[in-house]
Amino acid sequence: MRRVSRIAVAGTATASLALALAACGGTSSDAAKSDGGKEKGLAIAYDVGGKGDQSFNDAAYEGLKQAKSEFGYQVADQEPKDGESDDDKTARLVNLAKAGYNPIVGIGYSYAPAVKEAAAKYPKVTFGIVDDSSVQGKNIADLVFQENEVSYLAGVTAALKTKSDTVGFVGGVDNALINKFQAGFEQGVKDTKKGVKVEVQYLDEDPAKGFASPDLGKAAAEKQIEDGADVVYHAAGLSGQGVIEAAAGAKKLAIGVDSDQYGQQALAKYKDSIITSATKDVAKAIFNLAQSVKDGKPQTGVITGDLKSGEVSLADSNPAFKSDAKLQAALKKAQAGIVDGSIKVDLKPAK
Questions:
Q1: Is 307 exposed, middle or buried (0-12, 13-18, 19+ CB in 10 A)?
Q2: Which of 190, 255, 310, 332 has the highest Cβ tally under 10 A?
Q3: How far is CA 301 from the centre of its chain?
Q4: For the ranges 23-32, 76-85, 339-348, the one whose mean pLDDT is highest
């Protein structure tokens, strides 16, 4: 029901946007203002799972809200459609550019072809893409993160919290991005406590299923728990809600991702099982891009957030995590090693 509601909202927003375009005849030269001269600014287009995933997309939405509050201009956010093509994504970005929004950010690597095409059509508009650096141009900002680094810290946490010497990793889709999460996690576990087994499960080849199916996440985590895992880390977007639910139901621990999932209202009844979350500050990256455009000095090129910059980190909102002196000392040591280069964190899982 929730998914149908999202699609309905997206359809309504698209229809309204189309009417706005017809009224103002938007072109790239209108990028700063429309609707009677009222300034328009940041627009984002969500990845699969959409707003309300308590993870990746919601982190992007926080950046949008901050930009709206700080700059007082109009913003827009649009939902994905089930089974949409690259052409659908391109049309979404192009329509936002025509309507006068700048910058425009595609949330997720699946927007790469669309950002490339839309940026070429609207060279005066700044386009951003989160979690992809394959598409570059004079008006494109690639907002990427060192997920492997923070996942190493998640691995340290899992290794020190496990009592069964078995932990789990659930990934939405088996690709280079999610492999970084797995690689860092496995390395952190191995470096911290020898002999701990890491169970790994990917959910689906289709991102629309792998990142937006809590039932698949729950089933995968339940299987890992049956096999002995007592700490499960997910990098699965909306599907991760099912992972967290399974861990809470079995009175085991979960490690969230992207947003601080301990503090998410939709997951409140499971919060005691969410020991921490491996966060990446998508909100800050998006806000900074909006700020740069507002200041007339748009960011472009590859912009990387890591442990050193503070744009990836472990959330410490759970008191049980924050007060664990042994764990905190181990994490401090590991983070220092990563930052000074004495610990090299893998980008790909060991074979």
A1: buried
A2: 255
A3: 19
A4: 339-348
* Residue 14 confidence (pLDDT): 37
Residue 73, C-beta contacts closer than 8 angstroms, at least 6 positions apart: 38, 39, 40, 41, 42, 67
DSSP string, 221-274: HHHHHHTT-SEEEEE-GGGHHHHHHHHHHTT-EEEEEES-GGG-GGGGGGGGGE
Q: How many residues does the chain have?
A: 351
Please state the separation of Cα 38 from the chain's center in Å: 31
Q: Tokens representing 329?
A: 């000392």
User: Cα–Cα distance between 51 and 40 in angstroms, integer?
Assistant: 21
Alpha-carbon distance 220 to 304, whole Å?
31
pLDDT of residue 2 exceeding 80: no
Distance (Å, rounded) from C-alpha 135 to C-alpha 114?
Answer: 10
**Cβ pair 290, 103 in contact under 8 A:** yes
